[in-house]
Design brief:
nine-stranded antiparallel β-sheet, 50% strand, binds 6-O-phosphono-beta-D-glucopyranose
């Protein structure tokens, strides 16, 4: 039985919290975890489960609307911000300072609607389909499962599991683990989906990354030769084709799926930055810009999404894993 070994006061941004450190008799200090439970503004409860040795590079804070967020910071000067709501990465600043992700001006932080912008999840449905657009994962609070900070690469792992709410839409037991790791000039994510049910299920998924851009100068390389499903003009009835261009630009509305995409794309954001978007086992990609359908902001971003558009069939106990690495070159 664990004994109460001590209690600490943590400064949780402006919120002073009491957290209790429980440990068994002999515990390596590096392994001790701080379990902090905080009531944040607006009555939102955040549970932080941070290892003590990560405190310099991983901390929790109160975000917009009182929603809990995790801040990663590297001594090399890079930073990232992840909201537990939707496990949405809302900011990524490589060393040097500017945010390469884009948060839409219409983004809301009310714990009801998905956060629009950054890197939201699409799971268990990319869509359109029977469920809400892009599924429910971006519309639920994930749990902070673990943290680490080895070799100055702060990382957190968030977890989402089935609940009565998810089962009302998709009646399967599942576990989603999402590890986000910050390096000096890169941000890496690893998504693991496990079938914890006794019956098979199938899903589609994507990381709906909004990159800050100047639409007139933004371009993507690496898609030539892909089979395409163009969702313009009818997303429910995409037109099949093949990408013939070396360089894809955004002269108007763009909503296109690229099947069997390369595991390395290159994005020039039109603001002077070149990014590589590498992946392991994300088989497809999606480009999206709404043009004048989003008059107030479309000039300022492009979505380049690593995706799994082909349906994945999963037997009980099976896991699916895919990684994304975005880097400033
Ligand atoms: O739900 P959001 O963030 O507004 O994104 C919507 C768009 O997301 C894209 O991934 C889809 O290809 C589009 O069809 C869709 O309209």
């Amino acid at each position: 039985m664990a004994s109460l070994a001590g209690s600490f006061y943590l400064l949780f941004d402006s919120v002073l919290l009491e957290s209790r450190l429980s440990s068994s008799a002999q515990v390596d200090a590096d392994q001790i975890k701080l379990f902090a439970s905080a009531t944040l503004r607006g009555g939102v409860r955040a549970s932080a489960n941070l290892k003590s040795d990560t405190s310099l590079g991983v901390r929790t804070a109160e975000g917009n609307g009182g929603l809990p967020k995790v801040l990663l910071s590297s001594v090399r000067g890079s930073e990232a911000e992840i909201y537990l709501f939707g496990a949405c990465i809302t900011s990524w600043k490589p060393a040097g300072g500017k945010d390469l992700l884009f948060l839409r001006p219409d983004a809301v932080f009310n714990g009801q609607k998905p956060i629009s912008g950054g890197i939201p999840h699409c799971f268990p449905q990319f869509g359109p389909g029977p469920m809400q657009q892009h599924g429910f994962a971006r519309n639920l609070e994930w749990n902070l499962l673990d943290s680490e900070n080895s070799r100055d690469e702060p990382a957190v792992t968030l977890k989402l599991e089935d609940s009565l709410y998810t089962r009302s839409m998709w009646d399967f037991g599942f576990q989603a683990l999402y590890k986000v790791r910050l390096q000096g000039k890169s941000l890496s994510t690893s998504l693991t989906i496990t079938n914890t049910d006794l019956k098979p299920f199938s899903f589609t998924t994507a990381l709906h990354t909004y990159f800050r851009a100047s639409i007139s100068g933004a371009l993507v390389k690496g898609l030539k030769g892909c089979r395409t499903l163009n969702k313009d003009p009818d997303p429910t009835n995409p037109v099949e084709g093949k990408e013939e261009r070396d360089v894809v630009t955004f002269p108007g509305f763009v909503d296109c799926i690229y099947l069997g995409a390369s595991n390395e794309l290159l994005l020039e954001n039109g603001l002077g930055d070149t990014l590589t978007i590498k992946n392991t086992d994300w088989p497809d990609a999606v480009l999206w810009n709404p043009n004048t359908q989003m008059e107030s902001s479309y000039r300022e971003f492009v979505c380049v999404e690593n995706a799994q558009i082909g349906v994945v069939q999963m037997e009980p106990g099976q896991s699916w894993v895919a990684e994304q690495h975005i880097s400033l070159t």
